[in-house]
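From the pipeline queue, job 12 of 40. The input is one protein chain; the requested action is below.

Action: predict structure.
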Amino acid sequence: MLPPAIINSPRKDLQVNSERPKPISGDPQTAVPVSLSDSPQRWWLMALLFIAMIVCYMQRGTLSVAAPFMIKELNLSTSAMGILLSAFFWSYSLMQIPAGWLVDRYGVKWSYTLGFAFWSVASALTGFTHGLVSLIGLRIFLGLGQSVAFPASTRAVALWFRDNERGTVIACYLTGVRLGQALVAALGAFYLVKGRLKAFFLLTGIVPLLWTLFWYRFMSKWDTKPIPTKSKTEVGRFGKETSFFQVLRLLKQRSVLGIFLGFFAYDYTWFVYVSWLPGYLIMDRKFTVREMGIYSSIPYLAMSAIILVSGLLSDWLIRQGQSEIRVRKTFIILGLLIGCLIVPAGFVEDKLTAVSLLTISLCGLGICSPNTWSLTQAVCSKSIVGTVSGIQNFGGNLGGILAPALTGFIAHTTKSFSLALGLTGLILVSGILSYSFLISCRVDNP
């Protein structure tokens, strides 16, 4: 009788489940992959993350698309709508660090499943309430649920994809973010022009719940241990024994501070677009509703293509032997510089020129987008990547709280969005400085 096949363990830094699989009976040469990172099924994981981000941002963007119609229906000012748009980020931002800690502690299977279901129901109910207070409450619930999305996605990539694949994978699911924005604008133009507000929110909220069935079934096979680690020593340093308050010490590290501040600048700009692009095109540039549907979709579609190119190119450069941290930072800084074109877009007279500049600006954000998350993974150990990603997204979404309300206030006060877009450019410059000078060393466990 032949001896059992010797099954080589995967690379130590990618190992998730240390149990050796048994060979299939009758075929001693066949081995079950030890980790999802060694299985071609990891590309199904990428597809699930991609679809989840489409849904996440489609549901998040429903209120932005419906804003011009709800302003009339509820007799709201642009300043009041800015507060309503920012309410999502009150809970979303504050939950980022706790959500990252929970994902690191309990795994991505349950955290993403429950969060997705909770936020989808909150989104669906938005079309059935008309009071300002109740709308704010539902946006807060939406933020609570969606706070898990990026920490869970980042942890999944860190655990189950190789280092020179993660730029591509992150680019793929971030493309889903932009496609979600484009899709909700197109759906809004179709439903809202006919006055079907309830149908719009119900369709975008309930149908996507099917995703949770596929996610839970797939991850039940692979997410079997809540805290994969490389050694017992690391378990003791960051495991179930680690309290939430202990991880706050990460904020003292220089690179974490750079990630926090830099992503604040990126996300402030991004949420100016997410919250106000449809309203800006209608109220400031005098586009029709149908034109708004087209011209608020095109920039996101262009950005999606750039995100994929950026992820593929950065990964290729790293495979050629370039320093990963240097490559990621270069792409981020270049992208933020191009993003500053949002400033002249607010001052040009021709509305199509303005849309062109806004499109190029968003493409600049697309260049840096996958590399912001990949850079976090490059400087962090896998055991804390969910937590640091939560810190990153917390900083970014403080911009999410500020950008909609401040932009709406400036537009209401000055009767124009030009000054608000100029301020956004200054914030982008501060982000360039943060990524350039603060992120330079590896992030250690707390």
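Job complete. Residues 147 and 333 are 26 Å apart (CA to CA).
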